[in-house]
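Schema walkthrough. Field components (list of strings):
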Amino acid sequence: MRRTTRVMQRTILIPTDFTIESLNLVKHALHAEDAQKLDIILVHGLHLTDSIFDLLFFSRTKNVEKLVNADFEAACTILKNKFATRINSLRCQLFSGFTQSAFINFLEGNRVDQIYIPQTYILQATASNSFDLMPYIKASAVAVAEVHWEPLPHMPEKNLLAELFLL
Amino acid sequence: MRTQSKIVIVFFLISLTTVVLLSASVYFFINRYSFTDFYKRLEIRGVVTAKATLDHEEASQAVMQEVRALHLEKLPEEQEYFFKIEAGKTFAEEAEALGLPLSFFKTVVETGTATHQAAEIFFAGIRHSGKAGNYVVIVSAANHFGTQLVSYLGTILLIGILAASAFALFVSLVFSRQVFNPVKEITDRVKEISSQSLHLRLEQSRTNDVITELEITFNRMLDRLETAFETQHNFISNASHELSTPLTTIIGEAEVTLSKPRAEAEYTEALHTILHEAERLEKITKSLLFLAQTGFAGKVQKFDKVRVDQLLWDVKDTIDKINPKNKVQINTSLMPDSPEQLKIKGNEQLLHLALMNLVGNACKYSHNQPVTVSIGTAADRVILVIKDAGIGIPQSELKFIYDPFFRASNVKEYEGYGIGLPLTRNIVRLHDGDMQVLSELNKGTTVQLSFPLGHYTLG
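Field assembly_structure (string):
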C-alpha cells in the first residue's frame, strides 16, 4: 500500500562503519528514494562491554563519539547541507543486541521503512567489539535494497573528507 | 629562589608536618589514657577499701580485705582517707590538711566522684553510702609508672622526629635532584645546538613521560627550524638562479649579435629572444612581489563577501580562455542549494588567483586530463576539492611544496618557477582557510581547501 502513493516521510536504515566510503549508501539512498522527507539512521553493531564499571558510566552518545572522526562528521554535514530540504534527520545509532528479535524490535522502535546495504563493499569492524549487522538485516522482514558500486582504487585521500566528493 | 630548593623545602616541610602531627597526637592520647586509667584504679581501690572498712557486715568485710590483700598491690605513696558526711560540714580543715581544693569535696558530695592532681600525687574521691552513714573516701597515690611511660614516650617521639626530619631532608634533596636531572641534561645538550649545528637532535629516552614529550617537542621544533633555515637558504640561491638565467641569455644574445654586423632579420630574431627572456624576468619579479605582499600580514586587504560557486565558474571561464583544451569539470552534486552556505568573507582577486593556480597546475601536470573541482559545505566551512589524475608529487617531497622556487623532481618537462603553491597557501592563510595537498606519484593529486563561512544572510 505504501509504495503505491507518494509517501511524504520515510525512515531508512543504513549500516555504517564510519568511513567516508560507506556514506556512498546514503548518497545512493537519497537518489533512490522518492519520498519528500527522509529520516536516515546510520547504524553500527557494537557489543556492549562486560565490565561493570564501564556499564555504570555507559553513555550511548559518548560511545558513538568515540567511533566517529571529524572528517566523517563533516561529510555528514555536507550531505545534510546538500539535501537540506529532503533530509529530515540524519543520526548515528548503535545496535548492541544479540538476537534477531532484538533487531526486529530495534527496527520497529525506529519505524524503519527501508534498509540499504552494500552489495560488494564489506563494512569494516571499526572497533574491536564491532559486529556484522548483515545477517540480522538479511533475516528481517523490512524491505532491503542492495547498492552496488565499483570498489574504489587506492587514493591518497582515502578516509579524508575529500573522498566524499569523488565517490 | 631556585625551583630545586623550593621543591626541597616543600617536600621537607610536608614530611616534617606529617611526622610532628602524628607524634603530637600519639603523645596527647597516650598521656590522657594513662591519667584516666590511673584515676579509675584509684576509684576502684576507694570502693574496695570503703567496703572493707566501713561495711557493717563482718563476712563481707573479710572478703573485701582478702580481695585487697590478694589482688590490689600497694601503690607507691598510697594513702586512704575517710570523712563522714554530716549536715553542715564544710570539709575546710580536711581540704587544707590534704592540700586539696574545697571544690573537690563539694564535687564528691554532689556527683559521687572527683579527681585531682597535685604535683606527683593523684587524688580520686568517691562517695560511699553504707549503714554507717555517708562517707567521702579519698585515695591518693603517685603515678610513677604512668609518668615514666609518658616521659619515655616523649623522648622516643622527639628522637623519632629528629631522625625522620633528617631522613626527609636527605630524601627530598635526592628526590629534587632526580627530578631535575633530565631537565639539566636536556639543557646541556640543547646548549650544544646552534644555528651551525641544527642537524643535531636530542636523544630520546625510552620511558614514556613528560620529559620524553619535551624531547620530542624540542626535536620537532628543531625539524621546523632546520627546514626554515634551509628554505631561506634555498630561496636566495634559487631566486638568484632563476633571475640570472634569463639575464645571462639576454646578455649572451646581445653580445653575440653585436660582435659583427648582421642582417636585419637576425637583429629582429635576437630582439625577440631578448624580449621573451625579459618578459620572463618580469613575470618572475611580479610574482615574487605578489608573494611578498600576500605573505606580509601588515598590509590589509579589502575583504568582501564572495560566492564560492560564482568564483569557481569565473575560474573555469578564465581557464577556458587561456587553455581551451582543458577538461575541468565542476562537480556540484554536493553543493548546498542555499546561497548562504556558499558565501565567504574574502578578497575575490586573491581567491581567483589562488584557485587559478591550483586548477591551472591540475591541468598542466596532467596533460589536460579531466580535472574535477567539487564544492560542498560542512558545518561552518566551505570545502573545495580539486582532483587531477596527473603525475603527482613524490611522497618525500610533499613537505617542500610550499618553499618558494621548489620544484618537484618529476616536473622537469613542465615550465614553471615554483612560486604558485607558496602564493596560494599565503592567500588561503589570509582567509583563515586550510589547505591540504594529498598526492600519489603518477596517480594524481588532490587538493582540499576549506574556508570559514562568512555568515552572510540573504539580501
